[in-house]
Amino acid sequence: MNRRAAPARGPILILLTVMVVAGLLVGRFASDGTPGADAAHPLDVMVPAASALSTSWYCAGGTSAPGGAADETIVLGNVGTGDATATITVTSGDTNTDPTTVRTSRTRDVTIAAHSSMREQVSSILAAAEVGVMVESRGGQLVVEQEVTGSGDVSLGPCAREASNRWAFASGSTEKGARDWIAIYNPFNDGAKVDITSYSLDYSETPNAPQLKRDVISSIAVDPRHETVVELSSPDALGRRDQVGVVVHASEGTVVATRRLQFEQFSFPPAPAAGQPAAPVYRGLALGLGAPGPSGTWVFPEGPVGTGLRETIDILNPGATKATAQVDFQPVGVARPVTLTVELPPHQVTRVDPTSSVQGVPAGSAAGTAAAALPHTTVVQHRSGPAIFVEQMLSGNSAPTVGITATFGLTRASTRWAFVPGRLDAASLDGLRIFNPSGRAVTMHLEAYQSGSLVPLGPASRTRLAADGVWKPSLDGLGVPADAVLVVVADAPVYGARADVNPGFTVGNGVPFPGPSEPQ
Predict the structure, then answer these.
(1) How far apart are alpha carbons 76 and 270 in whole angstroms?
(2) What pLDDT is attached to residue 307?
(3) Which of 2, 188, 278, 481 is buried most deeply by CB count within 10 Å?
(4) Mean pLDDT on 61-71
């Protein structure tokens, strides 16, 4: 076994627990790097337990130099009752095609008071074209999210709590107008070696009959405490491909992997059939953490509708045999979900579009009409075959929702959810999306904290949500401050996500905050 010298952590017992969890994760993958069929919960990004002496968070894929693609800010929120201290370490990264970057690292120590948050612009610590960020905290209960801006858009989501030797991504494209990067961050003292396997459709030779491609970029060295960024859309990598799924496999060491998508005048579909009208054009930025393990269920509380909005559910089957999944669209106000059974060919991303044909379900059918006419929740369940990874891509080209976002489904419910920051800024339109999967009504409320004090929100911050219902509180409507720490408290497990608009828009998952009776 390769013994690693890791950053300072908690007691040996905590480290052994992490190693056991990591061992279970590795066991869910076959020797060739593809997931096994025994899908279980992946390593969850959760609020650390109040008893944890120290925790680490890892953020990859952002930029911190003038003119960068994804200008990064780290948001730190303390949902605990005691103060937290943290050391932020920012390390310059490079691309695999230009590994000549002078490697630099800078640190900053900060204190986050109980029930408070703060923003740290990464460029104020270290300016670099590509950066990896590690946050090591002591005391309190810290949640760390990364906010990036670029292409007139914004992306916000939690950083990783753990490294892994496998990461998967389902949504992406390297077609004309799209750029696609995989950022691989190694925060440890030992080197790592990584292979990137992509699964895509190639329209270049046969536009009306795309060819399935499986490509491997082998033996990428990621030095200790360093980040390497691979651009899949470069001519030396994949060139122009559509529906690109990715599995990152570290044959040595463990890493954190994120995907950064940048659309500049990108159209869906990228190659419309002859005689068809030009497809709508989108632009924007999305940055998201990969999935370090498979799950049997993936939940998306937000399925928006409106002018210029497009939704796809991308399902990656990296296995060598066919898989099947059940996709349930639960429109708001409709008693029963619209259910599809989807066959998933091996080594491929299958795109489920609720407004067009899906595995023989024609556009304008009950499935397409119900999902397209009303806001909805989507639940995808693995039914057979190799394990799957499910990601939602949303694109908007009409104000105010102009941009793109790509988010993996939630894989566990919880009675408490943390959101940091509560809002993007004082002018943004922000809301939560809380889905009740149980067969009974659930009572819940929203708590907002600013500078250690509870912010009064009024009766609209409480609700009793019916079975299969979605609560969509408007944070700006409730008067939630931009720098607030938010906690949703429910009397039964629910799923929690957020939606933020201006500038651009982003949809992201909350961070589960298990109660005393729930597993950590």
Answers:
(1) 38
(2) 76
(3) 188
(4) 91
The Cα–Cα gap between 257 and 331 comes to: 33
Percent of the chain's residues with pLDDT above 70: 82
Q: pTM of the entire structure?
A: 0.88
Report the pLDDT averaged over residues 300-311: 83
What was the pLDDT predicted at 256? 97
Q: Is 407 exposed, middle or buried (0-12, 13-18, 19+ CB in 10 A)?
A: buried
pLDDT score at 517: 64
The helix or strand, by DSSP H or E, that contains position 419, with its residue range, turns out to be strand 414-419
Which string of b and e fits 23-46 if b means at least 16 CB within 10 Å? eebeebbeeebbbebebeebbbbb
The closest alpha carbon to 350, from 326, 315, 325, belongs to: 315
Rounded Cα–Cα distance for residues 451 and 516 (Å): 25
| CA distance linking residue 419 with residue 497, whole number of Å | 8
Write the DSSP string, 195-243: EEEEEEEE-SS-TTSPEEEEEEEEEEEE-TTEEEEEETTSTTTT-S-EE
Question: Is residue 373 classed as helix, strand or coil in its secondary structure?
Answer: helix
- Strands (E) across 142-210 are located at 142-150, 153-158, 166-169, 178-186, 192-202
Cα 67 to Cα 320: distance, rounded to the nearest angstrom: 42
pLDDT mean over 460-479: 94
Please determine, for residue 61, whether its predicted confidence score (pLDDT) is greater than 80: yes
Run of H or E residues at 20: helix 12-26
Contact 222/194 with Cβ under 8 angstroms?
A: yes
Contact (CB, 8 A) for 210 and 223: no
Q: Which whole-number Å values give the CA distances from 32 to 19, 175, 257, 413, in the listed order?
A: 21, 28, 19, 31
Supply the Cα-derived Rg of the chain in whole angstroms.
21
User: If we measure between CA atoms, which residue out of 374, 373, 378, 402 comes closest to residue 392?
Assistant: 378
222 with 186: CB under 8 angstroms? yes
For residues 34 and 197, what is the distance between their CA atoms, to the nearest angstrom? 10
Residue 242 pLDDT grade (very low, low, confident, very high; cuts 50, 70, 90): confident
Parallel, antiparallel, or unpaired for β 178-186 and 226-231?
Answer: antiparallel
Pairing state between β 309-317 and 348-352: antiparallel
pLDDT at 355 (0 to 100): 64
Q: How far is CA 244 from CA 47, 64, 272, 289, 316, in A?
A: 31, 27, 18, 16, 9
Half-sphere exposure of 335 (CA within 13 A, CB side): 0
Q: Over 60: is that where the pLDDT of 361 sits? A: no
